Amino acid sequence: MKVNGKHVVLSFVAIVLGFLISFSYQFTNSHTGTVAEGKQWQREFEYREKLIRLEETTKRLQQELTEKQQSVREIEANFAQQEKSFKTLVEDIEKLRMFAGEVQVKGPGVTVTLTDASYVKLEDNANNYIVHEGHVHKVINELRTAGAKAIAINGQRLVQNSYIACIGPVISVDGNEYNAPFVISAIGDPEVLYSSLVILHGVRDQLVMDNIEVKIEKKGELIFDPYFEAKES
C-alpha cells in the first residue's frame, strides 16, 4: 500500500510537472511569436512612414524642378526675344544707313539707259527729242515702287532728298552735272524690276512715245559707293 501510494504521488507529480513544462513552452513560444510579430509590424510601419516621407520629398523636389525649368524657359525665351529684337534693330539700322547712302551696297538689279533721240525732224523742236528730268523721275519712281533698295544715276548715289534738275542738255543730280546718256541703275530683284518697267503701256512705252531711246538690262551684280555731296568748284 505504501509503495503503491508513492507511485501514485510520483505519477501525479510527474503529470503536473509535464503539464507545467508543456504550458511554459507553449506560452514562451506564443509570447516569442507575438513579440516577433510586433517587431515585424513595427518595422513595416516604420518603412511605410519612411516611404511616405520619401514620396512627399520626391513630389516636392519634382515640383521645384518643374518651377525651375519653367523659369529657365522663360529666361531663355526672354533672351531669344531680346536677341531677335537686337537683330531686327541692327537690320533696321543697316537698312537706314543703306537708304541714306552711308555705306556701300551691292547686289543684282537692272540698268536703264536713257538716250536722246538719234533722229530729229527738222520741223520739230529739238527739246522734244532729248531726255528731261521728268523722264528720269518716271524711271526712278517706278523702280522705287517695284522695291529697289538703292538707285544711282551715272554712278551718283541717290538718297531720299536727292534733287534732280535739267540744265539744258545735262542733268544735275544734287549739284553734280551729267551728260547723256543717263544710266539709271537699281539694286533689287532683277525680274521684278524689269517686269515693272516693260509692262504694256508702262514706263518704257511712255518714254518711247516721247522719242527717248530706252535700253533695259538685267545685271547679276551692281556696286554703289556711298553717297557724296556736290563737287566743289
What does the model show?
The chain has helices at residues 2-99, 133-145, 190-198, 203-209; strands spanning 105-115, 150-153, 156-157, 164-167, 170-173, 176-179, 182-187, 213-224. By secondary structure, it is an alpha+beta fold. The strands form 2 sheets. Strands 3-2-7-1-8 form a 5-stranded antiparallel beta sheet. It has a 3-stranded antiparallel beta sheet with strand order 4-5-6, with helices on one face. The model has no long low-confidence stretch (mean pLDDT 80). InterPro entries: DUF881. It comes from Schinkia azotoformans LMG 9581. Belongs to the UPF0749 family.
Could you give the distance between the termini? 168 Å
Q: What's the CATH H-level superfamily name of the largest domain?
A: Protein of unknown function DUF881
Tell me the β content: 15-25%
CATH names the topology of the largest domain as Alpha-Beta Plaits
DSSP summary, beta strand count: 8
The spatial strand order of the largest sheet comes to 3-2-7-1-8
Question: Could you name the ranges where pLDDT drops below 50 across 5 or more consecutive residues?
Answer: none
Q: Structural class, judged by helices and strands? A: alpha+beta
Work out the helix count. 4
Number of domains: 2
Element-level helix/strand string: HEHEEEEEEHHE
Task: Indicate the percent of residues in helices.
Answer: 40-55%
How big is the Rg? 52 Å
What do the pLDDT scores average to?
80
How would you sum up the global shape?
rod-shaped
**What CATH first level of the largest domain would be assigned?**
Alpha Beta
Protein name: Division initiation protein
Family: Belongs to the UPF0749 family.
Organism: Schinkia azotoformans LMG 9581
Coiled coil: 44-85
